[in-house]
Write a structure and sequence with these properties.
Order of helices and strands: EEEHHHHHEEEEE
Distance between the termini: 27 Å
Number of strands: 8
Oligomer: single chain
Amino acid sequence: MVIELEWQGKKFTPSVYGLKNNFIFTPEPEIMKIIKEKAFLKSWQVSLVGDVVVRRTLASGVCSGISAYVLLNFLGEEIPSAQEEIKIAVMQVRTWGRPFLTQSLKSYFNHKKFKEKLEKSLRTTNQEWLPLVVFLPKISNLKKITYAHTVVPYSLEEGLRWVKIKVYDSNYPGNNNLVLKIDKLEGTWDYRDKDGNRWILTINYLGNLLKRVPFLW
């Protein structure tokens, strides 16, 4: 079974922008909605979050920002922020360290319907506030994980044992031959040079972030 992913009738295609920086700005009410509902953790001090980029870039470095966004979004909590100009939480995830990532993963794996959530997310094209959030570490190595990376899926093929998801990766613009392989029986994953002993890999449909264009790096 192969599924070609679309968003509002537009298929996800490789970026035509290459390494060029591209910024997407949203109307103020939409920005405030993101801030109030999506962006922040209740139990963390602002000083621990690090430097916040007040514009969201979809070029080199986007993976860490999107990783941060979906990690925060999944927890669905808020913290007060002294920076009223923040438009979206675009941060460098790997500087946050193990405690934050561990907390996020524990929250995720308490979810009893992992497979159903993955399948539903991959097939959803019309719910603009439902990002695809999937963390795929080797659970036995949870405490060793210190890095996060995000890719964007555009096609899924499922066999008896393996799920193969074709993805776009901001580190490899224009390359549409990258495949994330998930072993359904073992619960492990394989993707390029990412080591499941140290990495969280997030796949994100980005439908809620890209409202006006089908895809940008």
